[in-house]
Amino acid sequence: MANPDLCSSDSSSRDAALPVGNSQVQRADGAPSKVVSDPDPSAQATTNEPDDRSGLDRAEAAVDSLAARLSSLASRWGRQFLRLASRARESIQDFWAEVQDFRRGKKP
């Protein structure tokens, strides 16, 4: 006898059964899987984020997160700038030393 939770469209079309409502179906690996046709919208709202925090707390958390990201970026850019400035200073010193050697007659 046919399962009342499953609805078959046509018995001759490969015996395919479609789940109706909340029912158990069998996955390809043989494990049962629950299928929910009409999820409760209020259940989705409660799983997204708890409402026990106030808007001010969430705003403070967002600002703190943004401040941490900006601080990290500023620190990284500062280190890169200092590294670039150090390399430029060294190159300029090398160039000036070569100019002085050239002026003193020590040609390469």
Describe the structure.
This protein is of the alpha+beta class and 108 residues long. The protein folds into 2 domains: 6-38, no CATH class; 51-103. Helix content is 53%, strand content 13%. The strands form 2 sheets. The chain has a two-stranded antiparallel sheet with strand order 1-2. It has a two-stranded antiparallel sheet with strand order 3-4. The longest helix is centred in the last third of the chain and has 49 residues, at 55-103. The N and C termini lie far apart (101 Å).
List the helices and strands and how they pair.
Layout: E1 6-8, E2 17-19, E3 23-26, E4 32-35, H1 41-48, H2 55-103
Antiparallel strand pairs: 1-2, 3-4
Helix content: 40-55%
Q: What strand line-up does the widest sheet have? A: 1-2
Shape: elongated
Sketch the major β-sheet. Answer: 2 strands, antiparallel
Series of secondary-structure elements, N-terminal to C-terminal: EEEEHH
How far is the N terminus from the C terminus?
Answer: 101 Å
Structural class: alpha+beta
Got a strand count? 4
**How much is the radius of gyration in Å?**
35 Å
Q: pLDDT average, as an integer? A: 74
> What's the total helix number?
2
Low-confidence stretches: 11-18
Strand content: 5-15%
Number of folding domains?
Answer: 2
Sum this structure up briefly.
The chain has helices at 41-48, 55-103, and strands at 6-8, 17-19, 23-26, 32-35. It has 108 residues and is an alpha+beta fold. The N and C termini lie far apart (101 Å).
